[in-house]
Amino acid sequence: MSEQAVRYQTKQAGFAALIGTVLEWYDFLIYGAAAAMVLNKVFFPAIDPLMGTLAAFGTYAVGFLSRPLGGLILGHLGDRVGRKEVLILTLFLMGGATTAIGLLPTYDQIGIMAPIALVILRLIQGFGAGGEYAGAVVLSVEHAKQGKRGLAGAWAPMGFSAATLLANVVFFSCLSIMGEQVFVEWGWRIPFILGSVCVLVGYLIRRHIVEPPAFEKAKAAREQSSKRIGVFSAIKRHPREVLIVIGTRMGENGFAYFYPVFIMAYLTTGLGFPKSTALWGVIVACTLQLIAMPAFGMLSDKIGRKPVYIGGTVLSMLWLVPFFLICGTGSFWAIILGFVVGLGIAYPAMMSPQASWYAELFDTDFRLSGFAFSRELGSILAGGLAPFICTALYSWSGHWWPIVVYMCVLGVITLVALAMGPETVHKNIEDNHQTITQ
């Protein structure tokens, strides 16, 4: 392949990672925003508002239960068959479930079957998402040259930023145009149905991607040796790395859903702010993320993945108390500033270097399955439970201090796991595959 063709595939892989991750996070963030504003009324109308929010966040957490299974199975297929085929499959799994949620009858129409169907669709959505992000990162990182893998890995985290921005712009636009009554009646369906557009765009891009050289090299070596990789081989080969990924996910993934999901509900239900206040905070912060993600990715190529990750974790923890104090002022612009620092600067410093670091931790033969399974297992323990636990703590105490303690505990776990992990910025990812038998 010519140098020009290599550069083209590298750019295509990065853009494919961006689009797919937009869909993954759009799915989950649309649901998170809907859970905080609408789904408690549409699917759980028989209970009081706070308990309805808890029930909606409970179904939100259910979507995370199937993510490790999806990461294990889809990641295994990606390591054996190819990154491209699995990434096309994840698009249709996630996008199909998201669109179906937008068409789902409500509790008033079909009774208890409505929340049951909602849970089933969330499980399908989570299964597909379990292989999406890791596959997108691995595809872009394996196509990148050494010394630029941090920047390449930032394409997928940028998808998080774009998806959060897109999801909240769509919600804000629909809510503003329709008004709250119409939005609750049927307008909430539109953001879910629009997820099908991401599926189409993602498919048109991903069908032209070729497999990365590192994967082709590892696959050829396996075929010559007639050795096979089992479903659990990644866990057996890299038990330490799996634990490191789970640990480092706790703080990052907890903060990922702390601001756009829990704080959304806290400001509206707890403090009585207009829904637009939290939406604007998320929108401004995620616009900044589109610059911060590649910037921190490039910085991690210069000084290492771990220093950048540690800095983001510490800043996220230190900003918790000032953020809640800012919320108590009632100032719109002060709250916007709170989101900018917490979600626009501190969080990208964790998310961006994490992508390439996770890909570099695992050998090529186990890269996608090891990355996907351990990352998504961490999602259950962190982001999947964070909005529910934060809401429950606030309901119990009536104050934000237990939430600060809880989020700091997640941050400390991340710092400990980071201390246990190696620095991988100079690792040659093409020469480290070690196939094992099952």
From TrEMBL:
It is a multi-pass membrane protein. The keyword Protease does not apply. It holds the Pfam family MFS_1. Its main location: membrane. Residues 13-425 form the Major facilitator superfamily (MFS) profile domain. It is found in: Cell membrane. Coiled coil: none annotated. It comes from the Bacteria. GO terms for molecular function: symporter activity. One of its GO terms (cellular component) is plasma membrane. The keyword Transport applies. Keywords: Cell membrane, Membrane, Symport, Transmembrane, Transmembrane helix, Transport. The chain crosses the membrane at residues 12-34, 54-74, 86-104, 110-139, 151-174, 186-205, 255-273, 279-296, 308-326, 332-350, 377-394, 400-420. Belongs to the major facilitator superfamily. Metabolite:H+ Symporter (MHS) family (TC 2.A.1.6) family. May be a proton symporter involved in the uptake of osmolytes such as proline and glycine betaine. This is Putative proline/betaine transporter. It comes from uncultured Sporomusa sp.
